[in-house]
Amino acid sequence: MSTEQALRAAMVPVAAGVRGYFAPVERSTGSAAVFDPGKHGRFALDAPPAPWLDVGWIGNFRRYSKTAVQAEACGWQEARGTQFRSRLQAGVEFDFREWGKLQMALAGGAQHMNVLAPEANAEAKPGGGTAVAAVAVQAGSTATEIVVGESAAGLFAIGDLVAVDADYQQQTGYVGSGIAAAYVKEPADVQQDVNYVRRVTFNVGRVAEKAAASLTLAQPLLGGAPAAGAGVQRVAALVDREGGSFFQEWSALFALEEQSGGRVCFYYPRLSPATKEQGEAAIEVGGGLAGYALHASFVALPYQDSSDGETALCYRSYFPARAAAMY
């Protein structure tokens, strides 16, 4: 192979698959998480830079752009003159190969709920009935260690799922520590349920170890260390639903894991749920077995680029292999 052929061969991105990363948009300000190719482009795929959260491998990745290009007619012949873009529209859809709290919430698009462990005689409800009272979180707790005191530690077992967040105190607006999990218009809408924030919070973890007075979680809480006055409750299941008025909004980053030395990244500053026809996709495993992937579909929302004031929907970055030609 000649030097020129080798240089051109390295121009072809070859990837084993697509990895996905999401970061919450600050809903009160509309601030998106920023992916800076110069600072973050060659990050280790298993250790993304903050605030990006790894959602694992994704399949059937498909991007689309339907932005219209129109023109102003010029002269008596009305020839095509100055062009401009209108009706900006772009989006992405794919299948999550893994199921978890974050993946289900992203695929569902609305409130994603934690089914709190119910009282013995709780009324049956699709999202869970009256829950066992929360245990107060004590000082010194972190995103991975929840201090509950010696008298309460026995209420939890290794392997339990737990939700950790503040009591609902009749507030309106976005609720949930660190990540906006729902929007409350009126306290009566959530029946003034003291546990409502914990029903929707992203601050959920699995108990991996126990000490005399604390619980150690297998992964850090997505919303960070619990605030003063927070409570912890066991979670029996995770549930989402089709419908509702709340729309999630996230920043997203997709990376093609490079085999040829080059890397391609697609950065969407703001994504919101779009209409989708399929909720789950079956993946044949063999022997009559099939795996099931969560199908997700998003539409890109406008983002103003501070470098020149232009409105953008998506950024595509390419990091050439060291031996690649430039054209």
What does the model show?
With 327 residues, the chain is mainly β. The strands form 5 sheets. Strands 6, 7, 8, 9, 12, 13 and 14 form a 7-stranded antiparallel sheet that branches. Strands 1-2-5-18-16-15 form a 6-stranded antiparallel beta barrel. It has a two-stranded antiparallel sheet with strand order 3-4. A hairpin with a 4-residue loop joins strand 15 and strand 16. It is globular and about 80 Å long.
Strand content: 35-45%
Largest sheet: 7 strands, antiparallel
The 3D shape can be described as globular
Mean pLDDT: 91
Distance between the termini: 18 Å
Number of strands: 21
User: Count of helical segments?
Assistant: 5
- Radius of gyration, in Å, reads 23 Å
Question: What is the structural class?
Answer: mainly beta
Low-pLDDT stretches are: none
Helix content: under 10%
Order of helices and strands: HEHEEEEHEEEHEEEHEEEEEEEEEE
Number of domains: 2
